[in-house]
Amino acid sequence: MANDNVEKSLEESVKLLNALGTGYHDWKSTIARNFHVDEFGKEITPGEAYYCIESGGSANSYRRLKHSSMSKFLEVMFDSSPGLLQLAEELKVEREEKLKSEMEAAARTVAEAKSRRELKE
Fold first, then answer.
1. Hey, where are the domains in the chain?
2. From CA 43, how far away is CA 58, in angstroms rounded?
3. Radius of gyration, alpha carbons of the chain
4. Are 82 and 88 in contact (CB under 8 A)?
5. What is residue 24's predicted lDDT score, i.e. its pLDDT?
6. Which helix (H) or strand (E) holds 32?
7. What is the model's pLDDT at position 19?
8. Type and span of the H or E element at 72
9. Among 11, 14, 16, 87, which is least packed by CB within 10 angstroms?
10. Can you tell me the distance from the alpha carbon of 51 to that of 35, in angstroms, rounded to the nearest whole number?
11. What is the pLDDT of residues 24-40, one digit of tens each?
């Protein structure tokens, strides 16, 4: 159970990290199909979960971090910079509000299109 809490905390911290980015290339958790080495030289074995993000134009340009590496990276980054943590929290809220607004607008558009189609019939 404690491990589940650590993973949830890590996921929340990664969301904060992603809030600092553009939203187009976020860190995502995935499962390794092949052997990799992360940015800090830690081995990632097939079947192991790790984080990756696109970094460059080619299809194989990814940065990879084991969950343990990501956890340490985020701990150092956010613990040493309270202002950065606050900014990330604010940007995460803004990103979530923007997404909610866009989803509501899309739902209204679909409802309006459905209504117009029903009127034609």
1. 2-120
2. 23
3. 19
4. no
5. 83
6. none
7. 94
8. helix 67-79
9. 11
10. 14
11. 889 999 999 999 999 99
